[in-house]
Amino acid sequence: MTEAPIYLYNSLTKHKDPLIKHEQPIGMYVCGPTVYNRPHIGNARSVVVYDVLYRVLCHVYGKNGIIYVRNITDVDDKINEAAIQRHCSIQQLTHEVTQQFHEDVAALGCVSPNHEPRATEHIAEIIAMVERLIASGHAYESDQHVLFDVTAPATDHWHYGMLSGRAVEDQEAGARIAVESYKRNPGDFVLWKPADAQDDPSSRFDSPWGVGRPGWHIECSAMSTKYLGVNFDIHGGGADLKFPHHENEIAQSCCANPHSHYARMWVHNGFLTVNGEKMSKSLGNFITVKDLLDKNVAGEAIRFALLSAHYAKPLDWNDKLLDDSIKQLDKLYARIKNVPQSDVPEPAVLEALCHDLNMPKAMAALHQCHDTQLQASGALLGIIQNYEQWEKYRIFRADESKKITAQSTLSHEEIEGYIAQRKVAKAERNWAEADRIRALCEAHGVILMDAADGSVTYSVT
Ligand code: AMP
Ligand code: ZN
């Protein structure tokens, strides 16, 4: 384990702050996907950035020195709409998209977080938090909704607007929630909303305020607190989440737990753009990870390209970026082919990563590395990870334990689904596909075991 100070640009203080290590593990919560459609490479940038941060933290503090939580938003208006459009149940849609998300980020070499909580499995915690906010006068019930009152008095560590710098008057309802007459103030945001009678039963939950579903912001407050406590170290997400999502998370969490300050550091990744415009589903200028994989672009090349700019800056995606990344990776692989392994990364690479995850500087240092240190340094960046040599290039190989997570984030149904897919691949003698599925499961801490009679069991490491 290397002790190196880690600095991160904190959107809350607007400074590069040192990460303060205390006795407990570092807690990191990252806003994960809303599972209504397949992730595009803009979504993937966020996952890859925090994967590298996680690797750096593991390198510095050991894998037991950090708890990484990335949620799945599986209840949301967009999900309801998508399920109606696709004529399928919400559960079917969210399971399918979650599985696609897992496949795509595994193909990009991202390790599983320690916990991957789903909102629908945390309704009790969400309701309990909403009840506390009502009891403390920070929220009110109105016409079957519960709303957070943004004019509520400040607490020890909180006033509304402290992250985004926006005044209460500027608080708009956010893209995902419509402004309605039942609000006391236009900026008040939804903690709980009623379900429509025709809504799919899997998006309808009983509550003291009637059958309904939670607002998006309260999900992250409730789940982060459950796994990391009322105060934790790092909260990450895309720059678009700073307002209103993260501003509202802070409001809810600090008011439900009056003496807490919630996350100490707020880290935001910049957008992936196309011709300078944010890549997004709504603009239609997106490419999915799967589109690229289907064209036989290697996952590590996509990852390398996504890491080619500083995480906080915009990164413009184009064919040349990908071509250059493939060439550079080829050169790196050619260099490490016959050199002995090293566990100790080049100090300049580590230093650049520890200083606000300065990827361009770390890449430049990587290119200047001695060959013997290339493997350890590249593995730390998470860019050297071709599957045959997955374990060999991992920075964690010094640990006896091969896997980062003790618990798989794949559900039993997902694992059984992969086993079935692999069976088909084997029947078709598609060994590459069968191996890919095995590697994917392994990346999630699930070891598939083939029995002599052709049956398959699994164990979770
Ligand atoms: P969503 O599924 O829209 O909730 O987004 C999931 C995550 O991807 C969030 O952290 C977003 O901030 C992030 N994200 C979405 N689009 C982009 C983009 N073009 N560039 C970088 N991050 C993005
Ligand atoms: Zn969130």
Mean residue pLDDT:
88
Distance between the termini: 22 Å
CATH topology name of the largest domain? Rossmann fold
Widest sheet: strand ordering: 4-3-9-10
Query: What's the CATH class label of the largest domain?
Result: Alpha Beta
Q: Ligands bound here?
A: adenosine monophosphate, zinc ion
Shape: globular
Estimate the helix proportion, in percent.
25-40%
Task: Please report the number of helical segments.
Answer: 14
Topology:
Layout: E1 7-10, E2 15-18, E3 26-30, H1 41-61, E4 66-70, H2 77-86, H3 90-107, H4 123-135, E5 139-142, E6 145-148, E7 189-194, E8 212-214, H5 216-228, E9 231-238, H6 242-256, E10 262-269, E11 272-274, E12 277-278, H7 289-294, H8 299-306, E13 315-316, H9 319-336, H10 347-354, H11 359-367, H12 371-381, H13 412-427, H14 431-443, E14 446-450, E15 456-460
Parallel strand pairs: 3-4, 3-9, 9-10, 11-13
Antiparallel strand pairs: 1-2, 5-6, 6-7, 7-8, 11-12, 14-15
This protein binds adenosine monophosphate (AMP) and zinc ion.
Zinc ion (ZN) binds at residues 31, 220, 245.
Summarize the structure in words.
With 461 residues, this protein is an alpha/beta fold. It folds into 3 domains: 7-269, HUPs (Rossmann fold, 3-Layer(aba) Sandwich); 273-392, no CATH class; 412-460. It has 14 helices and 15 strands. The strands form 5 sheets. Strands 4-3-9-10 form a 4-stranded parallel β-sheet, with helices on both faces. Strands 5-6-7-8 form a 4-stranded antiparallel β-sheet. The model is unreliable at 386-406 (pLDDT under 50). It binds adenosine monophosphate and zinc ion (ZN).
